[in-house]
Amino acid sequence: MEKIKITELECNGNKILLMRYIGEDDPVRYLDNAVALYVQEEEYVEFVDVEMDNPWIRIVIKGKTSKTLGINNHDINITNVI
């Protein structure tokens, strides 16, 4: 996954991931694999550019309450950058 940069944030016990593809190949294939590896069996919500104008970025919210997550700017803490 050397072609994927992941910024991980935490909000109300959920993980918020910003996944960025850095490379020349098809970004969709690499990001699909990265999401599958990271979330495995956990519940998650994924945000993808509908028009695919920017297929190099994927946002994933992973956790039990990810489907009803209310985000407040003060609740988000950056935990690490991979």
What this model shows, in words?
- This protein has 82 residues and is α+β, with helices and mostly antiparallel strands.
- It has one domain (4-72).
- Helix content is 16%, strand content 38%.
- The chain has one helix at 27-39; strands spanning 4-11, 14-21, 44-47, 57-62, 77-81.
- A 5-stranded antiparallel beta sheet has the order 3-4-2-1-5, covered by helices on one side.
- β1 (4-11) and β2 form a beta hairpin.
- It is globular and about 35 Å long.
- The mean pLDDT is 77.
Key traits:
82 residues; alpha+beta; five-stranded antiparallel sheet; 1 helix
Order of helices and strands: EEHEEE
Radius of gyration: 13 Å
| N/C terminus separation | 10 Å
What share of the residues does DSSP label as strand, in percent? 35-45%
Number of strands: 5
Shape: globular
Q: Which structural class do the helices and strands define?
A: alpha+beta
Topology summary:
Layout: E1 4-11, E2 14-21, H1 27-39, E3 44-47, E4 57-62, E5 77-81
Antiparallel strand pairs: 1-2, 1-5, 2-4, 3-4
Summarize the structure.
With 82 residues, the protein is α+β, with helices and mostly antiparallel strands. It is built from 1 helix and 5 strands, in the order ββαβββ. Strand 1 and strand 2 form a beta hairpin.
